[in-house]
Each structure stands twice: as structure tokens, then as C-alpha cells.
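Record pair follows.
FIRST:
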Amino acid sequence: MKPTKPIATLAALLSSFIALSAWAADPFTVGDIRLEGLQRVEPGTIFATLGLKAGDTYSDERGGAAIRALFALGLFKDVRIDVNGNVLVVVVKERPTIADVDFAGTKEFDKAALQKALREVGLAEGRPFDKALADRAEQELKQQYIGRSLYNAQVVTTVTPLEHNRVNLTFTVTEGEPARIKNVHVTGNQAFSESTLLDLFDQDSGGWLAWYTKSNQYSRSKLDADLETLRSYYITRGYLEFRIESTQVAISPDRQAITLNVNISEGRKFGVAGVKLAGDYLGHEDEFKSLVTIRSGAPYNGEAVAATTKAFTDYFGTFGYAFARVKAEPEIDREHNLVTLVLKAEPSRRVYVRRLNIGGNAKTRDEVIRREFRQYEGAWYDGNKIKASRDRVDRLGFFTDVNVETVEVPGSPDEVDLSVSLTEKPTGSLQLGAGYSSTDKISLTFGITQENVFGSGNYLGLQVNTSSYNRTISLSATDPYFTKDGISRTLSVFHTTTRPYYQADGNYKLASDGGSVRFGVPVGELDTVYLGIGVERYSFTPGSNGAYALVDGSLVYTATPQAYLDYFHCTGTAPSVVCANPNVVGIPATVGWSRDDRDSALVPTRGRLQRANLELGVGSELRYLKTNYQYQQYFALSKQYTLAVNGELGYAKALGGSTFPIFKNFYAGGLGSIRGFEQNSLGPVDAVTGGALGGTRKAIFNMEFSTPFPGAGNDRSLRLYTFFDAGNVFAERTASMTDAQWKAQNKLRASTGVGISWISPLGPLRLAYAVPLLYQKADTANNITADRTQRFQFQIGTSF
């Protein structure tokens, strides 16, 4: 047999390779190609890369090129080509395949986040293992920890060989202690004190809650945001030439303490002399002038300048000019410290949208996002429609971040693509609430909702109340796009059992069951009108009227409230009370309207929410009208402080000469109403039992002032608030009611207090400690019961 001739070898440790030959082989025609050493790599991959096939002429140059091409795949640590007659023998040694990537000692990061970081540098399960790649992975992990101020983090890689040429990788991390910011200094300031400027920073030396806020852990991205806040603070106060000269980040030798020094130059304070327009405004100069928010005679305000230029570019966008440029050029009068701003406009070219590209929605379906867009593919670019589309997607509540970018199409100057990048958030929520009183002890409410079921955009919710006096279970489902036009449909079913506010055998019970369907019709970008119809059945069981029972060690008279006996036409005495009509059926029809332009549904700082609803009992023995209106307004007083007000009004009456159903009354008291009083305990009460009856009129006012929590810096997930609540529910005066009782039931109730708001892992948690200011004391002489107060209350998933 003719001896095998080595043609070339590849040194795996060199970044380049050298083809070696014992002697030069004369060119010959390849008769066959044989592969050796393959374990997992498909032969087709070799043949497709080799560049040689049977019938080709082989040469040393082509052999060297084949080796280089195979090695460039990154799948092999050694490649050799031998010649046996006219047969090419390709001998390879595969790199090990990564079977598993694991981490040990990681507390600061979730393993999934670290695996994602390594995947970005090319190291992941199923990929070829390379020592150089493992070294890069170690450095990437260290960079991740440096971003969390863990400068002493150490990473050790352990490679465990497995059968079938596989390896397990384990990255053992010693995190160490994070470096803490010891001092932050601002130098060069004259107009404002250093303490005033440092209050603007989210990063600081830390308070007693630094373990929660992590504000004393250095982050370059957070520092950049703080510097931008500092710059904005100056340029909004007239300092046009403000500059940040330098930023020094000094770390101690033990890598545990960091000192930040920010050197600034304030420059002069300028006022605005005037505003001029220059350039091409498409013949709409007057319309553009109406968008100017820069005021002559006022101090220069960089935010107003930025807002004006943005308004100009957005307005150009409504005409299809996606790439319009508006530049504010200052003409400075240093003698008088005045500046004239010249707004130069270049509309560029008009374009239309070719394609809408959506990314980041791993769970939410594309159609859920696309149906919210008002800018259509193939239509002229419209800046207003794009902004409205972005806001509509954001208001879905499925994403923490929504960005829409305009991307030019190469080779098509009149086309753009819209790139929508999304960051999804969990859309399921768990809601818990609790209250404590001497009569009801601990009462709990529970709710679980999913606002984006299976990524469809549909809502599904379950609510349960375990209170001994008001047990409820309800299930509702909403399809926001029941029709292609955006009409929503909500289906609801419920069962409730209401008992009096004291616990005793033989007391009355009101049970209700029902279901409803409601449609939401959009009449604008922010407004929705709701239309609904339902069926309800109410069943009343009278109690042991006139009996006494032992409640909490006291003898309590457990008579059924006369208002219930009158409504259900009950007669007789205990224990034989008979009701002529203990079961009633109602068909409520509802009409509602809502408008919400708050900047956030979770932690709003500005904007308003308005809701109105009208319920009408039709086609049944329940004939009534019930309407209510709610208004909320949020004011961002500064980055740190927010003022919020809430008002609610309700009115109800019977129709057709009937009696208003007592179980449709309004109630007040407790969280979401007037804090400091037991839930739903305010308003008219039964003269004998003292049980709350509710009323046909309702007026509620709330005011909250939100501040940073002491020690938490500017962290918005943990806030302290003070509040003032006032209001009550009212009813018509009955013939048996005395003047004193009438005044007692209809006077205003009010409370004030403090609370904590925390965006907890389970949802927004609010705790309140309230002190009643206006309340009713017991008056035995006039047979007036005292209000049921409850100073401490908390709830997850509520506002106000």
C-alpha cells in the first residue's frame, strides 16, 4: 500500500495556523473524501465547508484553505488532512460540547440573568467549549458584579469532563461585600448650597434604609442619571452655560469605600430676550408659534427650550416629515445677561411607514400590540398617531418600558420602519387586605388577577372576602377587543352573603347571586363609554327578632333592622317572623364613562382619572336610579413630593313610586374611603341594633401629600404620606327619627393620619394610621350609637 503522506496540521494553541508538509504533493484528482474523528458534528457541515469534492484537483494551496475554513467554524481544536492515494482523509478532533452551565455562591444575581449575560459572549449549553471563551465569561461575570459595586467579587471556573466529549461548567463566585459610597461632594457651586444639590441625587452615602434602597451602592448609569438631573436643575433656572467640568470616582485601597467628586461651573444666569423662527416652516409659522413655551422676560429654562423643539419636530411629523430637525441657537447678550433664541427648522423629506417591527414581547402576542397602533403600515408618517400608539401600548399595563424608534430604510429615502422595543412585566397580581376590630376581629380580602391571560391581552379576576359580615366571591373576565373596532366585553358572576356587624346566632342574612355583561365602547384615545345589563337575585332571611345574644362577653340585642323588615314586608314577632316577599329579582342596566391620563396607574405623580356610572333598575320589581362620579388629580410638586386629591359623589332614588332597595345603598368608611373608621360603617344606622344601613347619597373627599421615606432617599417604591379624609353617606329622614338622631347621622366625618406606601413583591401595599377628627360619640339619652373607629388599617392593591 502506498504510504500516507501528511499534508498539513493545525496547532490549536495558535491564533493562526501553519500548514506543514513532509514533501510537496503534486496536484492530483480527488477520487474520494473520507472523514475521521466526528462525534456530533454533521458530515454535511464538513463537506459544505471543505471547498473540495470528488473530481476536483487537489493542491497544497487548496488543502491549506480547507484547513483554515474548517478551523474557522470553531468546532474543532485540531484539523489534519492526509492523502492516501487519491483519497483525502480529513481527520478532526472536536471541541467538547457544553452540557450544563451552573453557578455557585451567587446571591446578588438570579442565575437566569447570569446565563443570559454569558450567552451574549457565546457561552451556553450546547455550544462548543473553548478555554478562551471561559476566560471571557469570567471577565463578563466580574463586570456584572462591578455594576453592583461588588469590586472584590472573585470567579473560579471548574470544568468537569463527561462522556461523549461533553463538559459541565461551574462558575463559583465569592461575591464579597459591596463597595459603599462614603462621601459625595459637589464643588464649584455658588448659587445653590451643596446640600440642596445632593438632595437631587439618587445615589448618596446612604441612610438607615440603605439596605433596602441600595442608594449607597455605586452605579455608573445611576451617576449619569444624577448628573443629568443636576444639569437640568441648573438650566431650568437660567444657567445657560452650566457645565460639569469633571467627575472623579475614587475607591479606597481595600475596594470597599467610594468617594464621588463632581466639579461644576455654573456660569452666568440669563433671561430670555425673545424667540425668533428661522428656516422652512411649510407655511405654518403661526401654528408653530403657538407651540412655543419659552417666555420672554423669564429666566432661561432649558426644559422649556427642549419641550418647544420637541413640539416642533412632533408637529412636523404630523405632516409626514419624520426627519425634521429643529435647532435652538442662542444669541447671547453678555452685557445685559440676556439670550435670544433662534429656532431654525429643516423639514428634510416626507416619508411613509413601510413596516412595524415589534420586539421584546416574549409572552404578549404581536396582535395585542398591533391593534393598539393608530399609525398604519403603508401610510404617511404621522407623529401624533405614533405618540398616541405608544401611549396606548403603555396603558395596557403589560410592559415596564415601551420605546418606538424611527429607522431609515437603506436605499429608500422616502420610507421608514418603526421599531417597537418592549420590556414585559408580570401581569398577574395577588391582592390582600386586612382589618381588625373588636367586633369582627380580623377580616381578610383576597384577590388574584391576570391582566394578560396567555398573552392574549384578556383579563381574568377572582375576588374573595372572608369577612364574617360580608362574604363575597366574584369572577370576571374581560376581552378588550371583543370586536375588531376595539369594543370590550366583560362577563361577571358573583355570590355574596351579608350579615350584621356583630356575630350572634339567629341574626338576619341577605344573600345575593347574579351575573352581568358589559361592553366598553372607545369614543376617543382616552375616553371609553360602558354599556351593561345584568340579572340579580336577593334572598332575605330574618333573624331572631327581639332576642338577646352573648357577643364578646356582652349581652347584645340582636333584633333585625327595621329597614330590612319594612323593605321585605316582614311581620310577626320572634321567633316567628314571616316575610311576604323574601326574594326579589332585579335587572340593572348600566351606563358609564371613564377617562384616564395619569402618567402611571401604579405610582402616579401627575394627571387625572375621572369615572362616572349610572345604574338603572329596569323591567323588574326593583325600580331605581343610582349614579356616582369620581375625580382624582395628581400634582408633581417636585421630584420628591406629590400632592393628590380624590373626590366622589353619589346619588340614588327609587322610581315609579317604589321603595329604594336598601341593599343598593352607598357605604363609606375604611380604606378607599374615610380612613380611621371601620369598613362601610359610616352613615345611617339602625336605631335598635346600631348596624350600618348605608344611604342614598354619598360625598367623599381625600387629600394625600407624598414624601420620600426617611432614609430611603428618592426611592419611589417606598414612600411616606400624610392624608386628610372627609365625607359621609346620607339618607332620607324617617318619621321616627328625632332631630338629634338626624343631625348625628348626617354630620360630616373626618380623619387625618400618616401612612406608608410600598411597591412590594405582592403588589402596592398601603398602611395607614388614622386619627378621627370629626366623629360621633355615644349618646344614650338620644339613643345614638358611637361610630366604629379603626385606627390601623392596611391593604395590598388599593389607592387612597
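SECOND:
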Amino acid sequence: MDINQKSVPLHDTNEAKPETNNEEKSEKYRRTIGRFRIMVLAAGIIIIFLIIIVIVVGVMKKMEQKMPPPCSSGQTVDLSEPIDPSIFHDLTSREVEGVMEFLYEQKDLNLTRPASIKVSSSYIFTAELHLPDKADVTSFLDSRSGKKPPRQAKVIIFRGDLLKPKIMEIIVTPLPYPTHYTIWKDDIPFQYRPITGPDYGGALMKITQETELNARKLLQESFGGSLLFCGKKCLTYKYVTVMSSAVSGRDRRLYWFWVSQFVEFYILHPVDFAVLVDMDDPDYSIEKVWYNEQTFVSLDSLVKEYNEGKLKKISIPFPDLSETLFSRLYRRGNAFPQTSQDPPIPIQPDGRRYVVKGQHVKYMNWEFDFRMSSTHGPQLYDIRYQNKRIVYELALQEIGVFYSGYEPTQMFANYFDSSVLIGPQDKGLVPGVDCPSHATFMPASHVLESSEKIVTFKNAFCVFEFNTGMPLRTHHSSSPFQGAFYEGLSNTVLILRSILSVVNYSYLLDFIFYHTGALEVKIVSTGYILASPFTANASNIGVQVSDNIKGNIHHHMFSYKVDIDIEGLQNRYRTLDISTKAFANRFNPDPNAKIVQGQFVVSEKETESEAAYKFNFDTPKYHLFYNNLKNNKFGVPRSYRLLSRGMSKQLLPEGEGNEPAMAWMRYQMAVTKRKENERICSSIYSALDAKSPVINFEDFLRDDESIVDEDLVAWVSMGVQHIPHTEDLPVTHTPGMDLSFFLLPYNYFQEDPAMGSRDSVRIEPNIYNNPSSGVKVTGFDKEDLQCKPPVNEYQQVVEADPGILFEI
């Protein structure tokens, strides 16, 4: 131990502890104060935050109190696929699955599945609902007893696998688990089949490659583009014109393929180049070439003369793809209105006043079933008013367009839209434009050659209630001398709508139900005209509408089937023929004085030939359908009147060219006895079968059967002649393009059934015929809207699912 080292006494150590404890206490105090400050600050922030929340909630509650609640959705809509579908419901996915499973097991049909089909295959072209015989259907519906008729499917099969190919139409039943099929038609020539996937795809590939290989330089110099490896300057064979044997004089399937500049919209950018293709040739041989108003026997001969400078050449620059291009539908021109203001919109303050369940609709006194036929388009069934059937079947049959032209592509352009299947052309209706945003949108399903499963298109139908803006009735008796009162009823209707876009044209098809028991069938044309390259030749059949194109005169034609049942199935058809007659004027001193007055004469039609009607302005008529045993209390038959406001005369000579395929257009209306083997008046084969039509409407009349006390069908045809003009660019507008026919009650009701409508308005003096006593008003109690209409959310819907509008 170092003696110099000092030891520290123990008591010194004990005396140092109090100083250390004080420092620790001070540190703990400081820490406590810090924590407290943080807690106070945090509590302050939380309190401020809570105050803000309280304020925001209060403001929101005040705003909610000021904002109206959402409007009621009203009546129910159930679009789910039924397990047990009604008689008229389209084929369900379960039924289609059963049909396919059954048919592919049938060895005698030798069916090829869609992924492997060729022209030489046996394959299913389409399948859709086939109704049982009407007698079985009406017996079940009207008695509401007994067993429902079995569900059936009609299947079209192309038998390209046979030594002598043919087309078969068969009926498969019972659904959903079929056990057998029967032949509906088994003798349809194979060459009558419409253009199909294997046909079109094979021909398109062959002629595109051949034209590109041989005539690329010609196309680039003449039309500014090419068919392959074209970048942004592409030409395309997109449109075809059928040249049937009736006009070609040959029993071959011949199609003219046009070339167009492929921009929006290519229909308005045709170039003067086309090829005639033999579709019955497995190699799709090119038989003729059209270039700049000249015909050549082959591509080689055209190119040879072109390169040698021996022919008249043409030069059409490829269009600039700006938004101002005349054929593109971008907003341009003088903007209006001057400020951005939303247009008026219809609303349903109390929600829907109609019910939809599957494909059945109930509205006021109306109810009906609807469906979309793949081949023929929209169809309605079992249309009832006040629970009495007025129409059993109301169905589009055909849309035809006959063009005139100098070029072969329009010269032979006689189109029958059923040949491209009308039903699948209906899809993607846009809320707020095609139909009101409050409408109910319904899908349509099809079986197509490209798929063995059901294909569903969204927004194919819409149904909505609509105030037309025109009173259904109104009368103002202002003078006490006449009896002072006012009574009126707004014309609110239910509309079932579909829009068929068949390549260039769009057709709006409406079925309109009125409160009076009247039914209107309306069709309106819009869309792009079918343009052809401008030429000074044959100026009387086409009008120049832009620098390089003209619009050619054409005739739109439409056919409807109306199976009318007035007070049962035993109906008669009569006309009230209006004429004039000279009577002696007993109040004139001249004994020879006459007065000419209008009169009508009842003309009962007894046979089908008597009931084939060709309109004559000199002999106006009322067309009436009735049951001779059902009269009103005055002894007058309770009838429905058919009034057409779309009559158009077919000017082509009967029996010439393709005219026999559309014999239904010879008559503005024809009435026939209903037969199960006369279900439709046109077919998907009409574009090619004019020499011997598969369905010849003239045969419906040729047997000239009695139509007295029979189940009757009215075949109504309408049409409009269209000479294009510059205002048809870029698309034809709807005003002036509407056609319609009506079914109107005629002595059918005791009085106007719309007298029961709660929508009517009446204003009258408090004391009868004394306006100075003040007035009382009934019917205006719903003017103050107390709810918020739903927002149109279609923009978000289509952005999330483009497949609702476009094929993906």
C-alpha cells in the first residue's frame, strides 16, 4: 500500500449522496414537465380535430337536409336468366349447352367444332328459339292448365361435308336436355348460304395477297396506300356486293369485293377498284377487275396495261387523318349553344312505372314478351291490353336496300340484311343518347358459327317511359257560353327500342305503347350513306356529295309480320272504302243541282287474293280486323284498325333480277290465313336465291285460301326512297326518315280507356260554369320534385368495361 495514498473516510461518501439525489429529482421533474407538455399539445390537437369533425359533420348534415334524397327506383326489374324459361324466352345458356352436347353426339350430322370449321365441314351456322305450334301455345296460355309445350331450338347446319353439299334446318327438342331432332327443311341448295366466316376469311386473305403481290404499285400511285405493310395508309377489302345467279346468269356464288381507304369511316372513302370473286371456287379465283370505270379480265391484264400506259389512270390522295376530315365524327363547326349548358333530360320522379322480369314486360294495362331473333331481329309475343290478347306475334321480317349505280359494286347492290344475321347487329346502346339514361337496358344472346356457347351482347334492348311532349288529348272550353273547363292528358308512352347497325346504316326500331290501347311500330334510318367513287357518268342515279364520292339513289324497305288476334283466333278482315257520291241538292231551286259528298262502303275480304293491298290514293281505306261474333252494344264489330304511314311502292318490275326474293314488297299489306309452314316471309338465303326463292311470298297468296273467320296474319311493308345530298355527310340524320304503322282500337272499347289515367289534368270553376267563383285544379300535385334523379354513370361503366360497346 502506498503510504502517500490518502484514504477517504466513510462518512465523506455518505455526505455526497444528497447532492446526487437532487440532480436526479430535477431531471425527473424536467422529464415529467416535458411529457405533460406533449400530452397537452396532443390533447389540444385532438380537440381541434374533433371540433373540425363536428363542424364538418354539422355542415354535411345541413347540406344533406337541403339536398333531396335519391328518387325511388319504382317497379322491379329482374334480368336474371330463368331456370324455367317462359314459352317465348330466348334460349338460355343451359339450353344451348344441352343442344350442343346432343348435336355433337349425332354421328349422322358429322359436326365439326367452331375452332376447326371449313367450307367443306359440317357445322352449326346458328341456333335459336323455335316456337311450338300456335294452337298448343295459345291453349296453354289461355287455359292456364295442362302441360307447357316443350321448348325447342331451330338449328341451321351447313353440310359442306357431303358429296352433294346442302343446308339443313332442324328442330331440336325437348330443352334443356334434347333427345331427338326432326327435319324442318332439308333441300336448300348449298350455294344459297350467306357469306360465312370460312368463306369470307379465306377469300379475303387470298385476294388481298394476290392484289398486293400484283398491283401494289398501282394501288399506291392511284389511291395513296396499299393492302399489306401499309403503316398509316392502309387500303382494305371490307365491303362486298353479292351478284346472285338471277342477275349474273350463272349458278355460282359471285361477290364483288370493293377496296376502300381504311379511315373513319371507310364507307365514305371507296376507291374505283374492285374484284369479282367466285366464292364456289376453293381457290377464290378473281374473274373480273374493275379499275377507274374500266373492266379487265384479270389482275395481270390490268397491271400490264397500267405499266404500259395504255389505260386511263386515276389518282385519289390518301386522306389526312385530322379530326376535321369530312367522314370523321368529331365535333367541329360553329359551336352552339353560346355557353356550355346541359340539354333537358327526362326523369322518373317516382321511379319506374313498369315491371321487367326476364323478357316479360308489364306496363299500365299492357303486357308482352320480347326477344331478339338471330336471323330476323326483334320480336314481340302475346301482346295484351287489359289482359286481352291483341297480337300474338309482332316481328321484323327483313330489311332490304336496293341501290342503283354505274359501278358494278352498286349496280348489283341489292342487300337483304337477314343474310348477315340481323339480331347480332344490335348491341351497345348508349344511355343518354340512344335511350334516356333512366331506361332499363337488357342484353340479347345468340349462337353463332364462331362459338358453340351462347354469345351475349349487352345493352341490346332498352325500355323506358317517355313523355312525348304532345298531349294525348286536350280541350279548352274558355267561354261560359260553351261551358268553362279545361281537361288534358300528357302523352306518356312506353317504348321498347333496339338499334341495328348493319355496317353503314343504323336503324332505330321502336315498339310504342299508348294509354289508349294503341300500339305503334316505328323504324328510323340514320348512319352513313353507301358512297361510290365520283363519276360524271349516270348522273341521274347519283349525287356528288364530296370531292371524290357520290351518293347513289336507293330504296330502304322493311317487312313486319303482325299476327292479329282480336277477341280470339277467328277473325275477319274488312275495309271501309272511302269515295265520293253525287246526291240531289234538295235545298237548291235548280232541280238538277247536285252536291258531292264523301261516303264509305264496307268491303268484306273473303280470300287472300282480295286482301293483297296495293295502295291507291284514289281509293283510301280503313283496314279493320275483328271477330264477327264480338260486337259492342251498338251491334258494331269490336275491331282494331291497321294504319300505315310508311307505305312505299317497289318500282322494279315483278320477276326481274332479285325482285322475286322480296315479293313481300309488292304489297303495302297482305292478309293471309296463318300457317305453321308460313312463319316468315323472307330468309337468310334471299341475297342469292332469287331464281328460285327458298321462301317465295307470292306462294302465300297463290293458293288463295279463305280468310273468313280464320286466324289471320297481316304482312306490312314500308319503305323510303333516298336520294343522298350533302347534308347526309358525315351521317344521315333522323328527321324525315321515320316510318310507322299503328294498331288502333276501333269500336273496341266502350270509350277511350285512357280516361282512367291518373296523369290527367282538369281545371274547372268552383261553381259550375262560373269562373268568377274561382277554380279547382286536379292533377298538378306532383310538380315539385322532392328527390334527386340518378346520375348517368355510363362514362365510368364503358371505361371500366369497353366490351359493353365494342367487340373485344
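COMMENT: Residues 266 and 502 are 14 Å apart (CA to CA).
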